[in-house]
Amino acid sequence: MSKRKYKLLAVDLDDTMLNSRLMVPKGSRRAVEQAREAGVRVTLATGRMFCSALPFARELGVQEYLMTYQGALVKHAVTGDVLFHRPVPFDLALEVIELVNRYGYHINIYVDDIPYIARQTKESELYTAISRIPMEEVGDLTAFLRERKQDPTKIVVVTREELIDSLLAEVRPLFGDKLHITKSKPHFLEFSHPLGNKGDALTAIAEHYGVAREEIIAVGDGYNDLEMIDYAGLGVVVGNARPEIRERADYVCRTNDECGVAEVVEKFILAES
Questions:
Q1: Where are the domains of the chain?
Q2: Residue 150's pLDDT band (boundaries 50, 70, 90)?
Q3: pLDDT reading at 254 higher than 70
Q4: Which of 7, 24, 104, 249 is spaced 20 to 30 Å from 125 by Cα?
Q5: 90-192 has which CATH code?
Q6: How far lies 17's CA from each of 11, 29, 56, in Å?
């Protein structure tokens, strides 16, 4: 038997591993199990909070470090060991919140793996439905953060995509060299530490496990997956991704509803056996 080419599989959750019902399809679950049985490490790379990603890791039997909050928090699924935590610097967090508040857009901030909001809105209800994590209502977020005196792990703005795109064009020149700014979903704009992205997180995990980038497969669907897709030896995008994301892929697999992750495992991992 030839030496296995790929040793690490990193997979995004929403719109990649998860289908449109926010569930792991049976085919993809079985494929991940087979990859693990074949000796390939499997990790999740998600914008979700650690506590939101952990149930899926357990369902999939993933027992490695997870890349959560876009890669700002890399924490072990079993031991809880933190490989690193790269939060948004306090002063920059205040600047972002104050700027966004001028428009009245909904904001989430995350401290100690808890999501905080100023008040309940239709946007917070949407986010809760996706994350399955209740949100803490605290009133003025700037005052709350000043009182806590903690760097938030991440800041997320939720509004219509055309407003997100306009805001993105405004904030990139202001914060682009100080923060990592990306869209996760079309209506989510995310602010994180400059190294709080999936590419830098995947690099750290690979170095921790002694895996070369040529031995990594990364699978995603969105703008926030581009850094890890570019870094991995094989960057894969699911078929339901937007055209500009698919163009960055080494390979385009089936959609999330068609068990695209299973196709990747079968074609590039199990076929080597």
A1: 8-85+196-272, 90-192
A2: very high
A3: yes
A4: 24
A5: 3.30.1240.10
A6: 7, 9, 10
